[in-house]
Amino acid sequence: MSAFAVEYVYSPESADVRDKHRPAHRAWLASLVEDGRVLATGPFVDGTGALLIFKTDTEDALNRLLTDDPFNIAGGIAGLKVTEWNPMMGLLSTSL
Prior knowledge:
This protein is of the alpha+beta class. Helices cover 34% and strands 30% of the residues.
């Protein structure tokens, strides 16, 4: 398994879309937390985006998973950056 840091970028123009789809987005994330594929997630305090830490076999598997995010389906994500990550110390280092 590999860890991936996913950064969502939000546009101010899509705030209404995200507000409308936030319950479904959070339910989607909660299901992934429950099955161990999301290690941590949360929005940036300034509202410009969010950081999500995933555990998947491959980046391709992660990209397929991200297509199911209600925010993505509704057009609430303006940009996306995926980076494979190697947590060396701390709580998340023991999660892989």
